[in-house]
Amino acid sequence: MSSSETIAFDPESVPDSLGHFGEFGGSYVPETLVTPLAELSAAYAEASADPEFQAELQRELREFAGRPTPLYFAKRLTEYLGGAQIYLKREDLLHTGAHKVNNVVGQLLLAKRMGKTRIIAETGAGQHGVATAAGCARFGLQCVIYMGEEDMRRQALNVYRMRLHGAEVRGVTAGQRTLKDAVNEAMRDWVADSRNTHYVLGSALGAHPYPMMVRDFHRVIGREARQQILERTGRLPDELAACVGGGSNAIGFFFEFLRDAEVRLVGVEAGGRRIHPGDHAARFSGGRLGVLQGSKTWLLQNEDGQIEKTHSVSAGLDYAAVGPEHAYYRSLGRIDFASASDDECLSAFQLLSHREGIIPALESSHGLAYGVRRAPEMSKDQILCINLSGRGDKDVQEAARVLEAGRESSTSE
Ligand SMILES: *Cc1c(COP(=O)(O)O)cnc(C)c1O
Q1: Do 67-97+211-412 and 19-63+100-210 have the same topology in CATH?
Q2: Which residues carry this modification: N6-(pyridoxal phosphate)lysine (predicted)?
């Protein structure tokens, strides 16, 4: 396709005022959350049109978060794979270690503007909880983080980091004691005290206006990347890839390229051990349309509509639903989806560490794993950009454990 071809959709026109991305999205919430969500929508619309709010946001992104992040040419990885030139958008260099801080800073400034004094958030692996706790310390806001007790055990270091920033971490004992249960608990808290409390949702998920608002706060990723690749190479990339949990880093990276029909966009889900119920988190491979935690989208559920267990070596991709905007662009054929298995992810994790001196987060390693498969199929004059959503310091222990276990089982055979 050539860039002069017109595209039959306008990315700025979705969602509609009720949060619909085509048939996806919306706002499926209890009566008690209708008013707080409407107030949030109104406050967000007003703030995003206010140059003063935008200027403060830019300043915080620069001074607190560390933007802009570089676009990095992965020379030795490119040579090793022998195909497309690979560029990495370095969100791993941001404060607190991942893209999450872009959204946190935006929502906390909005909460302050709305006169809220208390912040709540959910967290799975702890990355969103750490970013939120750090932001609350920065702005002097009270902070409560909900986290499944199973996740607290697995991510003890992040629990300590949150507490160091002054946050209260509340363990959730319901259900599987992981992310989905923490979201339920945070929603319950918000219902009880929405007057003083803002709920900082951590991905492009949930009821309107969250998927739109979280996307907008991450659009800076793609805005910078587009300008950087044009400055560096004089042209647009051929393909972009990013890992997709809820989908916030991916939609933020892709958004400014949606209108460029010649740029292929690929979201990479967690293929886990294999695509079989309970063994993965690839909603577009094993899922169906349904409603979870406020939004209509693709989910992993059984015949009776019960949410299935999910698995991924990376905690940040281990969630049963995907953001509704991704479901929408998939239905239009604008974003393609692939998955990478745990094993492919761990190989990419080692490869980047070894060949570029960069330890990627296990989440980001899914996007890289796709790149490892894809780059050799492309020609040397083509460009593949991958969003490196976070750094892997948090994952080193887990990777060592899993890789060590793998070695033992293969030598004992
Ligand atoms: C949380 C996280 C993700 C997954 O969340 P998205 O909303 O899909 O971006 C991906 N990468 C890193 C490093 C994360 O911390």
Answers
A1: yes
A2: 100
Residue range 122-165, pLDDT digits in tens: 999 899 999 999 999 999 999 999 999 988 988 899 999 999 99
d(CA 111, CA 122): 16
**Protein residues whose CB sits closer than 6 Å to any atom of ligand 1:** 98, 100, 127, 203-204, 243-250, 316-317, 361, 363-364, 389-390
The overall pTM is greater than 0.90: yes
Pocket test for ligand 1, best of 123, 213, 249 (most atoms within 8 A of CB): 249
Backbone torsions φ then ψ of 320, nearest 5 degrees? -80, -15
Residue 309's nearest CA partner among 1, 248, 301, 317 is: 301
Rounded Cα gap, residues 411 and 406, in angstroms? 9
Mean pLDDT, the chain, whole residue set: 96
What CATH code would you report for 19-63+100-210?
A: 3.40.50.1100
CA 363 centroid distance within chain: 9
Q: Where are the alpha helices (DSSP H) in 206-323?
A: 210-233, 248-254, 283-286
Q: How many CB atoms lie within 10 A of CB 402?
A: 18
Least confident of 146-155, 242-251, 281-290: 146-155
Contact 267, 336 (CB under 8 A): yes
Q: Which atom of ligand 1 is nearest to the CA of 127?
A: 15
Q: Which helix (H) or strand (E) holds 342?
A: helix 342-356
**124-142 burial, b for 16+ CB within 10 Å, e for fewer?**
bbbbbbbbbbbbbebbebe
The values of phi and psi at residue 2, to 5°, are -95, 160
CATH classification (class only), 67-97+211-412: alpha beta
What residue owns the CA closest to ligand 1's atom 5? Answer: 245
Domain boundary assignment for the chain = 19-63+100-210, 67-97+211-412
Residue 256 has pLDDT above 90, yes or no: yes
Contacts of 291 (CB under 8 A, 6+ apart): 28, 297
Confirm whether 112 is a catalytic residue. Answer: no
Give residue-wise pLDDT tens across range 181-197: 999 999 999 999 999 99
Q: Which of 60, 91, 122, 356 is catalytic?
A: 122
